[in-house]
Amino acid sequence: MPKDYYETLGVNKNASKDEIKKAFHKLAHKHHPDKNKGDDKKFKEVNEAYQVLSDDQKRAQYDRFGSAGPQGFNPGSQQGGFGGFDFSGANNGGVEFDMGDLGDIFGDFFGGGMRGGRQARRGRDISTEIDLSFEDSVFGVSRTILLNKQSVCGICKGTGGKPGSKMNTCKTCNGNGQIREMKRSILGTFATTRECSECHGTGKIPGEKCSECHGKGVRMKQEEINVKIPAGISAGEMVRMTGMGEAVQGGTPGDLYIKINVKPHSVYKRDGLNLILDLPIKLTDALLGMTYKLKTLEGNMIEVKIPEGINHGELLRVRGKGVPSSRGRGDIIIRILIKMPTKLSRKSKEIIENLKEEGI
After folding, report:
1. What angle do CA 144, 325, 323 make, to 5 degrees?
2. d(CA 86, CA 211)
3. What's the average model confidence in pLDDT over 293-316?
4. H/E segment holding residue 185
5. Cα-based distances in Å from 351 to 184, 284, 290, 343, 355
6. pLDDT tens digits, 343-352
7. DSSP state at residue 225
8. Which of 276, 232, 227 lies closest to 135, judged by CA?
9. How far apart, in whole angstroms, are the C-alpha atoms of residue 108 and residue 28?
10. Going by DSSP bridges, is the β-strand pair 324-325/315-318 parallel, antiparallel, or unpaired?
11. Which of 199, 183, 176 is nearest to 118 (CA)?
12. Are 332 and 318 in contact (CB under 8 A)?
């Protein structure tokens, strides 16, 4: 019989992810086998429903085909989302269910200890902006920027100790870099670990602190950073420089994100890899044709033939003079704008009348 996962969790079909998570949290607490009057069967049903409805792809498939699915849909059988977790050690009869967001939902039970091994410390990501000329954004450029940021101490090289001083084992964590704690919950007793605040996870304490950073291993200072802007970058794009963010003792530095601002060009506008140019011409040039001298972004002068009888809004293409890329270089697109005269002399009117009589 098809299962109604929405009914199982007690939510409607338009429920948000947050509403689904809250409903699961509540029912998982209520039916967990370790609790008094817990229900193993209902707990499995609640978890199965949550596995499907918390995943966008599986939820869409379920909404379309139901619990049977197009080919016998089984939420527990699909790879990439639901590894079983055996709670047999908690005396629940070996109930298996997907952890998924349980690390967040039962964070008060596990204290984050279920998340696996210790995570390396990482410095803060920082961002800045660079203003480029239109030409530099098209062809690329190298820039040097000056940033005031938290950097590795140049004296102690990040150890926090005076050069030559001995690094001692941290007494707080006994050199492990972590503090192990036991916590009790309704699921039993669990071991959790946290980073040692004394040695910042390194397991070592300098016998004599560095006079420059006072044992922190990092300090605020100005740094010159060379930035290579790739050719063809667009306004608003970000350049990421891995490891060029702020440093942290005993860990890896964050990243630097550089937002690109591009100043407008007096002649050209950009459309992907093409450069767009509006060219106003006189009515007589449109009728008789002309040769237009065009200055490219490189500063070279080229001649563009405007054919006679060209129409207003018609486009002309100069190939291979646009924005360079790995796929080749774009074109220059010239859009013709015919300027109509606002005043005509008597002689001009006579000429136009003659043209009118000729059917032109």
Report:
1. 85
2. 52
3. 94
4. strand 178-185
5. 101, 12, 20, 14, 6
6. 889 898 888 8
7. E
8. 232
9. 14
10. unpaired
11. 176
12. yes
Task: Please give the span between the terminal C-alpha atoms of the chain, in angstroms, as a whole number.
Answer: 80
Q: Check if the beta carbon of residue 31 is closer than 8 Å to that of residue 44.
A: no
Q: What is the model's pLDDT at position 188? A: 67
Q: Which amino acid appears at position 222 of this protein?
A: Q
Position 68 scores a pLDDT of 53
| Cβ atoms 132, 234 nearer than 8 A | no
Q: Which of 34, 132, 52 is nearest to 89 (CA)?
A: 34
Q: Which residue reads 């060209």 in tokens?
A: 310
Amino acid (one-letter) located at 265:
H
Question: How many residues make up the chain in this entry?
Answer: 360
CB 40 within 8 A of CB 58: no
Q: What is the residue whose two structure tokens read 């918390």?
A: 54
User: Worst-scoring range by mean pLDDT, 79-83, 218-222, 267-271, 330-334?
Assistant: 79-83
Of 55-69, 131-145, 240-254, 334-348, the one with minimum mean pLDDT is 55-69
Helix segments in the chain, DSSP class H: 5-9, 17-31, 40-53, 56-65, 102-105, 107-110, 134-139, 283-288, 346-357
Tell me the C-alpha distance between 322 and 296, whole Å.
9
Would you say residue 235 has pLDDT above 80? yes
DSSP H helices, 196-293, are: 283-288
Helix spans in 14-120 (H)? 17-31, 40-53, 56-65, 102-105, 107-110
Q: Are 173 and 190 in contact (CB under 8 A)?
A: no
Written as six digits, the tokens of 255 are 């990243």
CB 241 within 8 A of CB 256: yes
pLDDT digits 0-9 by tens, 247-264: 988 788 999 999 999 999
